[in-house]
Amino acid sequence: MIKINLVGERKRPVTPSPTGRTSGLESTDLGSWALLGLVVLGVLITLGHMFVLNGKIDDKETEVAEAQKEVDELEPYIREVEAFKAKKSELESKVAVINRLKDNQRGPVRVMDYVSRALPELLWVTKMEVGPAVITITGQAFNTNAVANLIENLDRVPEFQEPILKDTQQKNQIYTFVISFNYSFHTPETEVEGAEAVTAG
Fold first, then answer.
1. Contact, 198 vs 158, CB < 8 A?
2. Number of domains in the chain
3. Helices (H), the chain
4. Which of 56, 163, 171, 198 could form a disulfide with 117 if both were Cys (CB 3.0 to 4.6 A apart)?
């Protein structure tokens, strides 16, 4: 005869095995140690980078100190050079003023030279007015050919523009004339050319 037990047996509570608990603890410890290792590594890298930067800063400070020392040693010479440059500039300014004065003085002298070279025979100048850009010559001659020769000779000077006969009068076989023309001086070469042209005439 077979008996059937209809009352279910109570299930036994399942308790975690000691082996599983130990495995979880070991995984947690490994993670913590790995994180700690990364933190320490990061700190070491940062400290190493800071150490390298501090070394570079020290090197730059040393270079700056050496450069400052050289500047301090060269400072007297630098002051002398600056004083020399100032003196040179002052002298150049004075030379420029002197040259301008010479040029201003040379203009009338050159005019007198050119006009005297251009004077033909039988003619003489009684008055000459030299303005900033215009020259007016008053003179006398024994004939009109001498006046024409003077105009031609003056026209050969490169610095003189074409002379214009303003007036001519005859009195007792003497011709009185007035000639006017513009002038300008540029370079010393024109002076030589003008003198040669007048001489050739």
1. no
2. 1
3. 18-118, 144-155, 188-200
4. 198
Q: Which of 123, 117, 126, 107 is nearest to 153 (CA)?
A: 117
Q: Give the torsion through C-alpha atoms of 194, 197, 198, 199, to 10 deg.
A: 120
- State the pTM of this model: 0.44
* Domain extent at residue 158: 106-200
3-state secondary structure of 177: strand
The label of the residue with tokens 């900033």 reads 132
CB atoms within 10 A of CB 139: 20
SS3 94: helix
The residue that leads in pLDDT, 199 or 18, is 18
Q: pLDDT, tens digit, for every residue of 148-186?
A: 999 999 999 998 999 999 999 998 889 999 999 998 875
164: closest CA among 175, 174, 150, 176? 150
Residue 179 main-chain phi, psi, to 5 deg: -120, 140
Q: Is residue 121 one of the residues assigned to a domain? A: yes
For residue 1, what pLDDT band results from cuts at 50, 70 and 90?
low
Q: Tell me whether residue 35 is in a domain.
A: no
